[in-house]
Design a protein that fits this description.
InterPro entries: Amidohydro-rel, DHOase, DHOase/Allantoinase_Hydrolase, DHOase_cat, Metal-dep_hydrolase_composite, Metal_Hydrolase. With about 425 residues, this protein is of the alpha/beta class. The protein has twelve helices and 17 strands.
């Protein structure tokens, strides 16, 4: 592949070209030259006028569904959806069938994406079958290429298991990802516990369930590090899908104490509030649930001050039979790969440079992935986008269509991705 992208604005705080409009010549999967009015020669030419380019985006939380639930999503369709969303690398949760708790299943996923446009990074389960009982062979899975360890949709409920996992993973410099939810407090819950849940007669999921579990996890992390002297420059615990005022405060306090912790939020969390569920649209049934305006304001503040490190899609595809039924019987989750960037542009309150940080530099740091910069000689792992373009989300490339955004006009459009010597461009 030999390609010249002309007149594109570079968004990369580590690049000497940051903020400048430049031509970028790409050859054999690498950035060969960056400059003005470059000679295209025999290269394919893309007019980048009005476009921005950054390092390829990384999504830290995706349900791939394959193996086992290929009718909802498979490894091909999830890569296509990811590319359209601007992601060149995605982390797949282990909640498949079978669960990613052995090297065989892990390698099935890893090998399927070698050299592809979108790189798949499988996370391995902490416990066998992700059921919170017996440990997996984490050392073997780490050596086989697991990007991180998590029970995914199933928060680790057992405190002793969580503590031992932290102690076990630290010498490996491996990351533990956990979602804070005390499931005894959310049992049978359908939406955020508040005025709206009372009005519609639904069992609520209290903010307390997140806060109690997060307090526990952070205390266990602090205790584990008191007992060991490992390097803590990289996050040891990553808290996924924060959703409450107090949750943000707890992460902020933990970071002020120097604890090696990081956190993310789902892009869609900023787009709705609990009152939007009055119509019982099952596409708005997510976990953690959409919460109060005060919670959303805290999430935006956490993004702005760096308390929250990353924005994720929390892509959670479901077939029609899982969503088109009574609200209390429908599954939790919406698809998000294709809309995450637009929702961040529209609802985060961040400038585009900071949104890019939450999709590139920070996820890479948390996941121990190599840094990528837009520089001559660097690998061409790039996302091209127009943060001001308005577009109608008329078609989803995911196998599943459980999204509330189909047919809506969004702002912030991905125009192309390049990775591993491959490229794709979108209208």
């Amino acid at each position: 592949m030999k390609l010249l992208v002309s007149s594109v604005r570079v968004i990369d705080k580590k690049s000497p070209f940051d903020g400048q409009v430049k031509d970028i010549l790409i050859e054999d999967g690498k950035i060969k030259q960056i400059g003005d009015s470059l000679d295209a020669g025999n290269a394919q030419v893309i007019d980048g006028t009005g476009l921005h380019v950054s390092a390829g985006w990384v999504d830290m939380r995706v349900q791939g569904r394959d193996p086992g639930f290929e009718h909802k999503e498979d490894l091909h369709s999830v890569r296509v959806a990811a590319a359209h969303g601007g992601f060149t690398e995605i982390v797949l949760l282990p909640n498949t069938q079978p669960v990613v708790d052995t090297k065989d299943t892990l390698n099935y996923i890893r090998h399927s994406s070698f050299g592809g446009l979108v790189t798949l990074h499988p996370a391995a389960a902490v416990t066998k079958k992700a059921d919170g009982v017996d440990f997996t062979e984490m050392m073997d899975l780490h050596q086989a290429g697991a990007i991180a360890f998590t029970d995914g949709e199933n928060p680790v409920q057992n405190a002793d298991l969580l503590l031992k996992t932290i102690l076990y993973l630290r010498p490996l410099n491996a990351l533990l990802i956990n979602r804070p939810e005390d499931r005894e407090l959310t049992l049978y819950g359908q939406m955020h516990e508040g005025v709206t849940s009372t009005l519609v007669g639904m069992k609520g999921m209290p903010a307390l369930a997140e806060e109690m579990m997060l307090i526990r996890d952070l205390k266990l992390l602090e205790y584990a590090l008191e007992k060991n002297t490992y390097d803590t420059s990289a996050p040891v615990l990553h808290v996924s899908l924060l959703s409450t005022v107090r949750g943000v405060e707890l992460i902020r306090e933990a970071k002020a104490k120097g604890l090696p912790v990081s956190a993310d939020i789902a892009a869609h969390q900023l787009a709705f509030e609990d009152k939007d569920l009055i119509g019982f649209d099952t596409n708005l049934k997510v976990n953690p649930p959409f919460r109060s305006p005060e919670d959303n304001a805290a999430l935006r503040q956490g993004l702005a001050d760096g308390t929250i490190d990353a924005i994720v899609s929390d892509h959670n595809p479901h077939d029609e039979e899982s969503k088109n039924l009574e609200f209390d019987h429908a599954d939790f989750g919406i698809t998000g790969l294709e809309t995450a960037f637009a929702l961040a542009v529209m609802h985060s309150g961040l400038v585009v440079e900071d949104i890019v940080e939450k999709l590139t530099t920070q996820p890479r740091r948390v996941l121990r992935l190599p840094e990528i910069s837009i520089a001559e000689g660097a690998a061409a792992n790039l996302t091209f986008f127009d943060p001001n373009a308005e577009w109608v989300f008329g078609r989803s490339y995911s196998k599943s269509k459980n999204t509330p955004f189909l047919g809506q006009t969004l702002r912030g459009k991905v125009r192309g991705v390049i990775n591993n010597g491959k490229q794709e461009w979108f209208q």
